[in-house]
Amino acid sequence: MNTVLFLTIAGLFSVTLMGNIIRIHLIRLDTPLHSPVYFLLSQLSFIDMMYISTTVPKMAANFLSRIVNHFFCEVPSLLPLVCQDTSQYEYTVLFSGLIILLLPFIAILASYARVLIAVYQMSSGKGQTKAISMCSSHLIVASVFYGTPLSTYTGPHTLHYSEEDKVVVVFYSIITPLLNPFIYSLRNKEVMGAMRRVLGKWIFVQKI
Fold first, then answer.
1. How far, in Å, CA of 15 to CA of 182, rounded?
2. Which one, of 128, 112, 175, lies nearest residue 149 by Cα?
């Protein structure tokens, strides 16, 4: 079973890494994508790559030699092993989680609320539908990314169960970096057009 999980995590890691690498190269190679928006998207891809590269390889390796009952040394998985009172430490983790996770999430929700207000004031029904579809997918990913670690870091360790924590950590450490390239690229006509242009140039060069 551990071998299957190792191969699954390694496969998801590879797909996520390749998706973000492809997006970075598309933005770099295609001149029409040289704009502030796509520069920020390339930085998001870079951050996602760094993020998963710091945790996921170790997570996959731990399937082959696991001592702690978790994918890696997360705080909730370590607290039950402590023989002393951890209440003060839990309060510190709770306070840090509220500042680091909850405040940015509230800011994101507030910004999207303003976007949606502007969208509903648009006269074009087609534009409204497109904008709402894009915003909803972004909000889903943001909710998964911030909501799952909030449930991990802001709840008392007595309410944590190892199997549930494992599922939660997969969502914010693997699923969101995996979804980002697809949401911001495959649903974007400009990025898909860039992909066709780059592939067309590559095929043309191969034929010469």
1. 11
2. 175
DSSP classification of residue 83: -
Exposure of 170 by Cβ count < 10 A (0-12 exposed, 13-18 middle, 19+ buried)?
A: middle
**CA 95 to CA 91: how far, in whole Å?**
6
Lowest mean pLDDT among 4-18, 19-33, 122-136: 122-136
Report whether 123 contacts 140 (CB < 8 A).
Answer: no
Does the pTM exceed 0.70? no
Is the Cα torsion angle 148, 153, 155, 158 positive or negative in sign? positive
Q: In this structure, what token pair is assigned to residue 13?
A: 């890691």
Q: What is the largest CA-CA distance in the chain?
A: 71
CB contact at 8 A, 149 and 102: no
Say what the pLDDT of residue 146 is.
Answer: 87
